[in-house]
Amino acid sequence: MAVVTSDNTDKLTSLTANMASASYHISNLLEKMTSSDKDFRFMATNDLMSELQKDSIKLDDDSERKVVKMILKLLEDKNGEVQNLAVKCLGPLVSKVKEYQVETIVDTLCTNMLADKEQLRDISSIGLKTVIGELPPASSGSALAASVCKKITGRLTSAIAKQEDVSVQLEALDIMADMLCRLGGLLVNFHPSILSCLLPQLTSPRLAVRKRTIIALGHLVMSCGNLVFVDLIEHLLSELSRNDSMSTTRTYIQCIAAISRQAGHRIGEYLEKIIPLVVKFCNIDDDELREYCIQAFESFVRRCPKEVYPHVGTVISICLKYLTYDPNYNYDDEDEDENAMDADGADEDYQGSDDEYSDDDDMSWKVRRAAAKCLDAVVSTRHEMLPEFYRTVSPALIARFKEREENVKADVFHAYLSLLKQTRPAQISGMSDISPSLRVLLQVPMIVKALHKQMKEKSVKTRQCCFNMLTELVNVLPGALTQHIPVLVPGIIFSLNDKSSSSNLKIDALSCLYVNSHSPTRFYLSALVPPVVACVGDPFYKITSEALLVSQQLVKVIRPLDQPERDTFDASPYITDLFTCTIKRLKAADIDQEVKERAISCMGQIICNLGDSLGDDLPGTLHIFLERLKNEITRLTTVKALTLIAGSTLKIDLRPILDEAVPILASFLRKNQRALKLSTLAALDILVKNYSDSVTPAMIDAVLAELPPLISESDMHVSQMVISFLTTLARVHPLSLAKIGGSSILSELISLVRSPLLQGGALSAMLEFFQALVGTGTSSLGYMDLLRMLTGPVYAQSAALTHKQSYYSIAKCVAALTRACPDEGPAVVGQFIQDVKNSRSTDSIRLLALLSLGEVGHHVDLSGQPELKTVILDAFSSSSEEVKSAASYALGSIAVGNLPEYLPFVLGEISGQPKRQYLLLHSLKEIISSASVTGLKLYVEGVWTLLLKHCECAEEGTRNVVAECLGKLTLIDPETLLPRLKGYLLSGDFLKTLEDPDLNVRRVALVTFNSAAHNKPSLIRDLLDTVLPHLYNETKVRKELIREVEMGPFKHTVDDGLDIRKAAFECMYTLLDSCLDRLDIFEFLNHVEDGLKDHYDIKMLTFLMLARLSTLCPSAVLQRLDRLVEPLRATCTTKVKANSVKQEFEKQDELKRSAMRAVVALLTIPEAEKSPLMSEFQSQISSNPELAAIFENIQRDSSSANMESMDTS
To answer: Which controlled-vocabulary keywords does the entry list (predicted)?
Structure first.
């Protein structure tokens, strides 16, 4: 029968194509829907469904009416399958028909929802949910959604009010909750009537009705106005104070907890009234009520961090009390015979204790579970109280690891895990008194003792919790368990061998082993290797992959290569097992990618540490590696494994595969995958170093051919690896470098030297390379040849180099070459001196010559050159600023090469030449920065006295240099000099400088503070209470600092306070990273909010802060969301005046982008889009094409950035 239909449909489709008439096709389907055969009706409805899903479909009014009527009729079809399909059609139908048709649909569904037949009621309520789900969201501002919701709301409130039929009530409440959740913002006018309809249901005799009412109220408070919210809270508070019956009191407490979970940012101001009531109800002997009270506390702690702060102590003590609340069970008898039990391993009878006491009416476990969860919330949200937690909460949780109810036990473990996660070192810098990690260490013995018993429990869940706990312990405190390994290993092996263990349990046990597999595990190898090997053979890929990681660690433990002389351990019994299980996984082609990669890494480690014991298996295994190199999916891992093997101290014989491998590696250098290029260069480097006798010239040529494109300033890291590889070649295979002169490698290198971006590691690599290259004695690449290539363009005068930085790099290379060729050096130095003297030299020649002299003099004593001092001092009076500064750098640098000769000379000049002080002080700064501490110690006093004379100099520039010199000098002998430096701050107190009447002093003080907060947060953590008021004070705009300046016909406003405000906001940004736990976030947000309305630079900073805050403390940001959205919206909708300059437009664009980034970050907070203002702003964005485009771009970028950060790990 279906066949006929599909044939017909085919004919129909061709007809449709010919006649291009959708309505004909549809009327045909409608006709079939009236057929008496249910299969016909089903197929026709199905075809209609696919028609409706096409975007192209357009219905005329008549077809619309017929389709709607038909679908509504089919909702009452006798056949259930047809009914289900008809409901599904409603979704696409709503968006295809006109508004009044949607209203017809909704009307019919609402009427049917109250019908007598249960099946019809059910299908209609599903229909309503489908329609609500299909309506465009509130943020799109569509009129359709609003009118439909108004229609439904009236019908629903009357259905909810009817108490006769509970099932209708429940459905109506469910739909109401759905609608409030998705479209609550559109119903603002109905909120009061919805509220008055919902409140009476809280006392309904049916608990299911109360429960759904609470859910609906939870969704209502997210979008309702303030008046409705106040009504609701006042009602709940007055009912709670009356406390008519236990049953309603429970419901009201549950309701408050639900409101707090959904809209914690609104309930905060009522906590002062709510918490005492909840505390009171905790003391009533009713387990269910207690559970709800503690759950309410949990939601307050998580959702109203600021307002709950004064009550945290109370909450903790209540939780600690009820964590052990188990009135029907006696634990005392266990502790006495604990030791006996460990001794004779009588664990079996202990395990039986789970079931005997399970008492069905005992609800106390729910109270204990709520207490554990609430403690979890406290610990996760208040990391400033860590020391307190370790004193009180930690011992209490450890003592409850013996909990008899498995669900509760899991939550106790989870709470302890949260405590450990809070202790991770990253989050805490410079806490006062003993460090949190030390506190953990003190509790480790207690933890191990408590877990030791649990690790052989029957329950899989418990054992899994134990492993997670041990793994986290080692993450927080590496090495914490080293002494306890003997106690723990048997427990781990128990789970690996146990038949009843689930795969997740085995994975957790293995990862626990992995983090603990350090040296002490050697003594258990005989016990550990068999279960791990068995896991490598496990059919489930995740277990295999984890077991391979552990095997790789075990190989390192069996035979550590870093201390061969101490190695008396016999590894032979384990080698065969480990090798056999790994090679089996390495050979398999049809396994999971992660297993492939880990098998390669593990085998790499085996060959690296045990390759000399593999005998005949080695060449074959290496050939498998060769195969894996040729496969795109495994090549990167294989390159890393080969690098490991090539670097092994066992000198593994790689000759069988080198001929084939090197050309393959060379080909990887042109692949567009950065990680692969970097790993390949590292592999080639170590191969050339350790296998120079087996690497043939042909192989090297293949690699050299690929290098030129990789040397470029666009990727300095890759360039640096290439240069290091070339340096290795020059040292090991000097002959191969004869070719690089002819190829473009050298010209690429020379142009890289001229790049302004060359610095740091890449520059050092370049200098090493030139020294190695000139050392090879290759013809046409001698000292003078290279020198000409480097300095050619400067002397040719064809074009000056665009960047000053390039002169510095060239000079460093020249000096490196000169140091490598001491015989030819002096002549060149003489030539440079002549170049500086020569009046015909261009500024750029002088510049290069001076810098080169400085760089050479830094390492070689140039005091033998009699003219040097005068030549350099003459350059101090050059007309070119750049030549002057090069001369001052050169003088300082040369002085480092011979302090006794030059330092007194420089000091004398500073005293005798007031006009040149600024330049001479720069020379002095260079000396203090670069000379060795021991050499300088003799001169410290003289230099210090001289510097102090110049502290009061009138020029700010000179004062700044003096300050830098003083700071750097202090570091040479901090014990004596730091107290002196403090003495000169007249008040002797940094804090006073923040109150200094002089604006500039305050600004510099803030800059200093920022630097401290960034680099040494521990210095300032305890000062924050006093500093923050001054800091916040500087973020305010001061009218008296704004002045008007006349520039010709224009008036221009200048704000002298801008720089200090900027410094203050920069400090605030830094504090977010280093001292978050010491800030009152709400006070902080007040000033961020002001910054959002300030000058361009400050807006940009506060936008960044908002994005940071959204991830660091989302709940606080959520409480302030409405006040933060407004300035963002203002920024995005500001128009630049039409006649403004181009920069104004660019600035405004930048601001918009930045504001949008903040908006995207705010929207990552789960409840943000439910704020009415935010959703209004979103609809504004989506309706403005320019803003919508920016918004989409940023969202795309941020999601791809997240993916990247996952990749790089």
So the answer is: Repeat, Ubl conjugation pathway
CA dihedral 144, 149, 150, 155 (to 10 degrees): 140
- Sequence-distant (6+) residues with CB within 8 A of 639 are 629, 665, 668, 676, 679, 680, 683
User: Contact 232/195 with Cβ under 8 angstroms?
Assistant: yes
d(CA 281, CA 246): 10
* Nearest in space to 396 (alpha carbons), one of 443, 363, 350, 442: 443
Q: Taking a C-beta distance cutoff of 8 angstroms, is the pair 44, 33 a contact?
A: yes
Q: Which helix (H) or strand (E) holds 1044?
A: strand 1042-1047
Q: Distance of CA 1199 to CAs 1191, 1196, 1202, 1203, Å?
A: 12, 5, 5, 6
Average pLDDT in the chain = 79
Q: H-helix or E-strand containing 635?
A: helix 635-646
For residue range 451-476, list pLDDT tens digits in order: 888 887 788 888 888 888 888 888 77
Contact predicate 155/110, CB 8 Å: yes
DSSP β-ladder status, 1050-1055 and 1042-1047:
antiparallel
Q: Say how many CA atoms lie within 13 Å of 821 toward its Cβ.
A: 26
For residues 114 and 167, give the distance between their C-alpha atoms in angstroms, rounded to a whole number: 10
Which bin fits 233, alpha (ψ -120 to 50), beta or left (φ > 0)?
alpha
pLDDT for 293 equals 93
Residue 797's pLDDT band, with cuts at 50, 70 and 90, is low
- Helix H or strand E segment including 1033: helix 1024-1033
- Count of Cβ atoms closer than 10 Å to residue 1170 Cβ: 21
CA 57 to chain centre: 45
The DSSP output letter for 517 is -
Residue 448 and residue 486 in contact, taking contact as beta carbons nearer than 8 Å: no
Burial 171-185 (b: 16+ CB within 10 A, else e): bbbbbbbbbbbbbbb
Taking the C-alpha atoms of residue 765 and residue 727, their distance in angstroms, rounded to an integer, is 8
Give the C-alpha separation, 888 to 926, whole Å: 9
Supply 748's token pair.
């690429």
End-to-end CA distance of the chain: 57
Count of H-run helices and E-run strands, the chain: 64, 2
The residue among 764, 796, 770 whose CA lies nearest residue 783 is 770
In DSSP terms, 1042 is beta-bridged to 1055
3-state secondary structure of 397: helix
| Token digits of residue 828 | 């060149």
Residue 1113: CB partners within 8 Å, gap ≥ 6? 305, 1076, 1081
Q: Give residue 16's pLDDT.
A: 42
More confident residue, 17 or 227: 227
Separation of alpha carbons 740 and 747, rounded Å = 9
What pLDDT is stored for residue 536 in this prediction? 81
For residues 684 and 109, what is the distance between their CA atoms, to the nearest angstrom?
A: 73
Binned at pLDDT 50, 70 and 90, residue 367 comes out as very high
Q: Which two tokens stand for residue 375?
A: 């403690």
Place of tokens 């403390």: 1113
Whole-structure pTM over 0.70, yes or no?
A: no
Helix H or strand E segment including 1053:
strand 1050-1055
Q: Counting every residue, how long is the chain?
A: 1209
Question: DSSP characters for 853-918?
Answer: HHHHHHHS--TT-TTHHHHHHHHTT-S-HHHHHHHHHHHHHHHHHTHHHHHHHHHHHHHH-GGGHH
204 CB burial (10 A radius; 0-12, 13-18, 19+): buried
What residue type is 567 in one-letter code?
D
Residue 1196, by phi and psi: left (phi above 0), alpha (psi -120 to 50) or beta? alpha
CB 1031 within 8 A of CB 1038: no
Q: How far is CA 1189 from the centre of its chain?
A: 26
Lowest mean pLDDT of 201-215, 951-965, 999-1013, name the range.
Answer: 951-965
What is the rounded CA–CA span in Å between residue 983 and residue 960? 19
- The answer to whether residues 810 and 753 touch, using CB atoms and an 8 Å cutoff, is yes
581-598: pLDDT as tens digits: 888 887 887 778 888 888
